[in-house]
Amino acid sequence: MKRLLLLGGHGFIGSQVRARLELHPEFAVSVAPPSSILDLTTASDAAWDALILDNQPDVIVNCAGRTTGNAEQLLEANALLPARLLQVLTRLGRTPWLVHLGSGAEYGSSKHGTALSERAHPHPLSTYGLSKLAGTQLLDLAFASGQAQGSVLRVFNPLGAGQSEATLPGRAAAGLRAARLERRTQLTFGPLGSVRDYLDVRDVARAVVLVAGLNSAPTLLNVGSGRPTRSRDLVEALADIAGYRGVLAETAPGSSRSEAVPWQQANIRRMRALGWEPCYSQADALRELWRGSAPAHLRPLEGPLTSGTPVSSSILQTAAAYPTVSPRTPKERTALKEQPAS
Fold first, then answer.
1. Superfamily of domain 168-196+227-264+280-324, CATH level 4
2. Rounded CA gap, 124 and 133, in Å?
3. What is the pTM for the complete model shown?
4. Which member of 143, 160, 191, 316 lies 3.0 to 4.6 Å from 201 by CB, making a disulfide possible if both were Cys?
5. Which active-site residues does the annotation give?
6. Are residues 65 and 128 in contact, defined by beta-carbon separation less than 8 angstroms?
């Protein structure tokens, strides 16, 4: 049995990894305290030493990090935290197998219609991507020098329950919930022409657990679906699941980050060679996203839809129910495009 220490096990991806590990009795799992109790970016050397020495891990999985915040916060969580981990392990003379979560944002954009392999030169176009790349490069140097052993998993765009509203899918779910509640006939987004590689967060967890159980693996692995999806198609599919028949307008100001990266798709041949394959469909992931976003009790719609004003946060927090409407007709629905996987 391998002793495994999970860092960041209370976040969006980390909680799914924790749940997946429960299905694998070959691991004796310890989960680091949440950041509200032990903030690994500011923890003392003594606290770090205690975390390692008390758990004696054979494997460390690092799901800790930040997707939002200012440059200093992102650098601390995504680059300095793995640097601290390496420093502690070196000081204690420990070389557990490390599995660290990187990000597809490290690559930046790719040529339209092409899939990014691990050999692609990274050129991140956001502060988040830069901070994640810094963490990956620190670990890559440690792996190459023999200071540490393990693999970085570059995760593309995970989907699922509990997704942050800082992401397009999370923001769309919150907007659809509010539009249903207020019986609004239109929901407004920025431009939705960008293409991304979305996959179910449970498939990310499966990939993490698989690599955690290995004794050797490539030091860099892409984790994606291998399929490109236009953002408009994703939002329309989620609207269908939500039963929203209003207009999805694209008249809000666009995101500079999305405009800078019009196309991103993962090449996942390395992960497939290790025996991993996505097993959940995008529809599965969107249903989980909606279930995690919407109240369990739905009530039939009473009265017609009317256009409304912008949604207030208090409505989102206090609403106990919202009306149900019929899904779009096939002519109104834009199905998700099934592209060949890479």
1. UDP-galactose 4-epimerase, domain 1 (3.90.25.10)
2. 8
3. 0.86
4. 160
5. 128
6. no
